[in-house]
Predict the 3D structure of the following.
Amino acid sequence: MAQTRYPKTPRDEQPEASTESAETKARGSFSRRQFLRGSAAAGAASAGLLSGMLDDAAAQGEPGVAGPGAVDMAFKINGKAHVATLEPRVTLLDALRNHLDLTGAKKVCDRGTCGACTVLLNGDPVYACSVLAIEAQGAEVTTVEGLGSPANMHPIQQAFVDHDAQQCGFCTPGFVVASAALLNRHPNPDQDTVHRELGGNLCRCGTYAGIRAAVAQAAGGGTTNG
Amino acid sequence: MAEYVWPAAGDRLHIGKHISRLDGPVKATGRAKYAYDVNRRGMLWAIMVQCPHAHARITAIDTSAAEAMDGVVRVHVIQDVGTEIQWAHDEIVAVAATSEEVARDGAAAVKIEYEVLSHFVNERAVDEAPDAQPAQAETTGDPTAAMASAPTKSSGSYHAAQIAHCSLESHGQVAEWQDEETVTLWASTQAISGVASQLGEQIGIPASNVHVETQYMGGGFGSKFSVDRWGVVCAQIARDTGRPVKLMLDRDQEVSVAGARPSTHAEVSTAADADGNVVAWDSKSWGSGGPAGANSPPLPYVFSFENQTHMHTSVPTNTGPARAWRAPRHPQACLVTMRALEDLAHAAGMDPLDFFLKNIEKTGERANTYVEELEKGAELMGWRDRWRPRGSATGTVRSGLGLALHTWGGRGHRSNCEVLAYRDGLVEARIGSQDLGTGTRTIIALVLAETFGVGLEQVKVTMGRSVLPASGASGGSTTVGGVSGATRRAALNAVDAVFERIAPKLGTEMANLELKNGQLHFKDGAMAAMPWRQAATLIGVNPVSATGANPGPGQLNDSGVGGIQMADVSVDMETGVVSINRLVAVQDCGLILDMKLAESQVYGSLIMGVTYALTEERVFDPHTGQMLNPDMEFYKLAGIEDVGEMIVHMMTGPGYDERGVIGLGEPPVIAPGAAIANAATNATGVPINEMPMTPERVLAAINGGMA
């Protein structure tokens, strides 16, 4: 069965800065610090580059080593500053859920398959189970809670409600965030685009018909089901 | 006295409308708190050490290294030395620590030794099973003689693999003791009342001192009725440490031990007379869902034939035990029966639609429903114009059509409800039920609002707590009938109780009062209608309270539905990939309370059906006894692009509405696999007899590798 599994971190449309730093690297005239920054901005965070820590280390001309004990970390999540003292191995998902009590992103497969933990990192959807918290420092993290509240829902959240694009609701936060990212990238997506962009999220109750309709509504298109 | 009936079609304010689920906004914004989301001050995380062997005896457990770790607070031996373990991933020890990471380190540091015993996990090879348990054949008429003299015969073997529940929120809970005798359990469960009783019994406190709380739960599908051993362990560790404890299953445990749907394998022979009437059925089935084997699927399914015989063999295996999986035994029975009848129709040279209609009286009392549904489905699918005989399609990608029938009971369970009416106009239902995501909360609210003749903003539903009036477990499509019956009766009683209280203050009789469209009406016209909220002020500071139960007076729910589904699929003859073009579901379920939620149940069922038809399977290695795919990479669920176009039609109106409410959770999930298999058979021209219909199996069938 052709089931697209999108790597949620490296996107095909990369920021300008990363392209530059990649070119710089190719020319052999780059500083290690620039390279690290560029790579991190390109979303290569999942490669294990500890951007925030390494920036400091690089500034001091020494390799960065964090842990294994807990270290202080600072995050910007849904526009607010958060600090926590966490082991470097803690994932962004566990930091959000276990330490910051932001439980909208769900832990389901915990290994980058199901998309229930999807959050935005600088606007790009990532699997929070596959990003280390320490890597997310310095980035704008947006969780499902940051998109809207029950009294003031994001249009895609309203559309999920209107089209009953949820049953048990456990995959819903991931789908809502992935759908918001989809609409940011493709304001008027066709069905193939919707399927491709949401192919990295899985639902067990079977809400895909409602999700298709919800995305269509939020995109300002039709409201066809099925 | 209230008359316990549903309002007539013309008088319905909310019933039957497309109403959005009331907890949609809290779910879509990530505010809904599931058991997995509960974080308590000072809480410990518990992780369970699993047995790596399919069959083994524990010979030694050394917890010293784990106990010595910083942050590990408690190491709890669940199954001690000497215990015989019957399946891999069974839980042996739980380690509770101050963080999830440390709990995992602690679990990894526990040393357990085993004597490995022989195992059996491949029930398909029934002849090799060490402990197969054949049952007596059940026979009606004389199938052997009928078979011998019939002009048209068919036979085949049909297979449905074991699948898992794979609930997205894994099983588990948070336990916190309030004092030595009282514990709160935030549990991911389908049965708050039952779990309270089970836990109380197993830890030696009164059931009334166990407070189970489940506002939202992330999928159960029949696997979450029990407190389970891990629920008891969680409460024990919380008591032993004096701290709240969270214990949720990891994904590998969830998929391997927390729920399985038994396999079914069957060999079937059928026969028809010259007119296409089925005259004989002979089936032998076997299957397994773990150490307890598997009960017989109901064969033949939906139909009963004059001459039929069926024999089942239960095959115990060393695999994680079966739990009820949405419509237990029915999807497997549906595959076997509908595939066998499609094959017989083919042998008779008939369009299966005509063949099923020809034999429809053999379905019993729902025959007329099936006829109506088949006609509607045929219209939506364009069956009459588009169906071609098996094997007519040519080219690399071939499409075909298939259909299947199903049935289910779905009578409302036992439930109680208390309704309170307050002087600010708010009306509250208090009910010890749980909303699995089927929309139970919304159903209760709309029945309450309907009965008081007010808007949904005027009512409140308090549920999901075991201390509330007891309601049944949510399973078997019994919830909607149970809670709607109890709520309707309680609300009707509450309306009467309100009238009784306020009538004297209005200088009139109870019988002169009526609530509709948000207003209190005086039947004699002596006074002008008064807004409900104004009338409610006469209630006074003590709210009016009334109760209702299901079952109870009046016919508010019923049992027994039909339902038909049709599939249009394409099969790539070179790759064996089956893809869904269109699915049509036509479903009855009596009186539909919320059309939007009802349709959601059917869409969801079709999608779940596509998944078990095409990709889902618990794969076991016969040599090691291990499940090879206890994860979500290789235990595959269909994605949004895999499910095709879906058309859902709900039967309503005369003949349906007056039956009252009937459950809908199970029926539509039964037939998709059978309809898809029939369509794939029609497309390819060769019998596609095995679920899941993976490319490998379909290619084998195309290449003559299997019957």
Observations:
- Residues 148-218 of chain A form a domain with the DNA polymerase; domain 1 fold (CATH 1.10.150.120).
